[in-house]
Amino acid sequence: MKLYCTVAGLVVSVDRELRLLPRSVDLDGVFVAAEPEKRLRSALGRSRSLLAVPRFRAPVQSQEVWAAGVTYQRSRQARIMEARKGGGAGDFYDRVYAAARPELFFKATAHRVAAPGEPVRIRRDSRWNVPEPELTLAINAHGRIFGYTIGNDMSSRDIEAENPLYLPQAKVYDRCAALGPCLLVTDQPLAPSTEIILDIRRGVRSAFSGRTPIRRIKRPLAELAEFLFRDNAFPRGCYLMTGTGIVPPEAFSLQAGDEVRITIPPIGLLANPVICAN
User: Fold this and answer.
1) All domains of the chain, ordered by start, with CATH?
2) Are 229 and 187 in contact (CB under 8 A)?
3) Residue 65 to residue 59: CA distance in whole angstroms
């Protein structure tokens, strides 16, 4: 089932029917539940039918958003290149790709996350910025993957290239991420052939596009979740972006007015305009 966070409350799409859940059911409660899908289905008896989905909100309440890095071969190559370009140590990224321990980093709190249709930002002190389209795991408070959404991990590549220790500044700032359009709640893994599709629109044309299947993620998704939960509690669950395999060329950088469109067919389309920070 698909779960939408809206201005009216939580909306569930089941068999193409839209149901507005009672206000007593919130996203935190879903992430706390041992069996989130069962929690939602039990609330359907107290829901009411809707003809259309009200305005979207990002599917996040108290959840932290984390991210995994260098999980695709393409990302590994790009990180080595950008680090060497900036004078950094490119072999850091080469080593983490092959290491037993994945790279995991904090990405955003809820107030930094853009909803579908809301703008994402590029930093005013950065000259080289890209989106990173990522399959994003919904993990409940017990460490179980129970669903998926689309994530946009906005990144300032020149800041990260200058020094690996600048990663938080390259990654964490206001509107540095977007999530949506919904949370696909399922206990079934996505097919390895599932594609992530990126299209960056600049006016009436496509400035860059690319696609990759999720089978190219090097590490099992459950392994990424397990490492994140090692000695780390998430009382209201969390999201984990799983890395990007679509990297624009070195000469490309986002501009204000661009639109980032990310599609993962079982989930939908996440589209966000781009603005520059004031």
Assistant:
1) 2-57 (no CATH), 64-276 (3.90.850.10)
2) no
3) 11
